Amino acid sequence: MKAQLEAIEKKAFEELTAAQDLKDLDAVRVKYLGKKGELTAILKQMGKLSAEERPVIGQLANQVRAQIEERLEETKTNLEAHLLDQRLATETLDVTMPGKRSVLGKKHPITIVLDELKEIFIGMGFDVAQGPEVELDYYNFEALNIPKDHPARDTQDTFYINDNVVLRTQTSPIQIRVMEKQKPPIRIIAPGRVYRSDALDATHSPLFHQVEGLVVDKNITMADLKGTLEVFVKRLYGEESVVRFRPHHFPFTEPSAELDVQCFNCHGEGCRLCKGEGWIEILGCGMVHPKVLENCGIDPEEYSGFAFGMGLERLVMRRYNIDDLRLFYENDARFLNQF
């Protein structure tokens, strides 16, 4: 067995010396040191040896394995260096060739319109407020005059985390948080993501964006609301834009209204874009309900205010004549490169 081990070591060294590349080197490693290799086969016969021979042969076998492994590493290092030298000698690098140009990203259409909205309202003296997307039921509903048994909760299709924590269904909770911490005058917009349990289709998504606004001060009237929103629409869609207000109902405003913009395509005559109505509804608004002011510690006898809220995706769709909301979230470069 001693002679066999010495023969294995000699043959392994010869084959390592003859190896031309890393593939040959790995073949030698498997042949002698692998699970079914020649050295492993010898070691499996150790049980046949006497108690005196076993430690002697075991020590010799370990020495042979160590010698082969050491020669393997030396040969591998030499082969890698040789292969690198060959590559450097044969490859040419033209430093005058232009490099690969990195593809630059572009603003998402939602971001483009949101930045315009911010610029418009900041220009009118508004600040931008932020708030948590995981919200307490109190801020999302109760402080906005929507108690536990209010039917408006059914229409929200809320994602509940537990009985008192929800994914916010609107950015109105930001308004409540601002009114609690800041004394009037208040003039803010609150953009952000909101969540509702809607089936995904061309006009609905469980995740979308809203921009809500709030003004609270002394002697604020419906005329201030109408004037602010008319300026906003004209700056967003052009000075020729025509708006109208229709009575509506929201739990947190009284009186309430919806704002329509005359169809840009047919100018009020009726077409496919406006579904024959001549007008396109873009947002809801109204005077802040006195109870909402009271919930935030603001005296409704001294202060009044107005609020409004709009779906950002709908504004972008009308801005760019996009007919499928899902395009905003699919990250298709063919779509995004158009903006």
Q: What's this model, at a glance?
A:
The chain has 339 residues and is of the alpha+beta class.
Secondary structure elements and their pairing?
Blueprint: H1 2-18, H2 22-33, H3 38-43, H4 53-90, H5 109-123, E1 127-128, E2 134-136, H6 137-140, H7 152-156, E3 160-162, E4 165-167, H8 172-181, E5 186-195, E6 207-217, H9 222-237, E7 243-250, E8 253-262, E9 279-288, H10 290-295, E10 304-311, H11 312-320, H12 333-336
Parallel strand pairs: 1-5
Antiparallel strand pairs: 2-4, 3-4, 5-6, 6-10, 7-8, 8-9, 9-10
What does this protein look like?
This protein is an alpha+beta fold and 339 residues long. The chain has helices at 2-18, 22-33, 38-43, 53-90, 109-123, 137-140, 152-156, 172-181, 222-237, 290-295, 312-320, 333-336, and strands at 127-128, 134-136, 160-162, 165-167, 186-195, 207-217, 243-250, 253-262, 279-288, 304-311. The protein is built from twelve helices and ten strands. The strands form two sheets. The protein has a seven-stranded mixed β-sheet with strand order 1-5-6-10-9-8-7, sandwiched between helices. Strands 2-4-3 form a three-stranded antiparallel β-sheet. A hairpin with a 2-residue loop joins strand 3 and strand 4 (165-167). Helix 1 (2-18) runs antiparallel to helix 2, helix 1 packs parallel to helix 4 and helix 5 (109-123) crosses helix 11. The longest helix is centred in the N-terminal third of the chain and has 38 residues, at 53-90. The N and C termini lie far apart (78 Å).
Order of SSEs: HHHHHEEHHEEHEEHEEEHEHH
Taking the alpha carbons of the first and last residues, their distance comes to 78 Å
What percent of residues adopt helix (DSSP H or I)?
Answer: 40-55%
Largest sheet, described in full? 7 strands, mixed
Quick one: how many beta strands?
Answer: 10
The outline comes out as: elongated
Overall pLDDT metric: 86
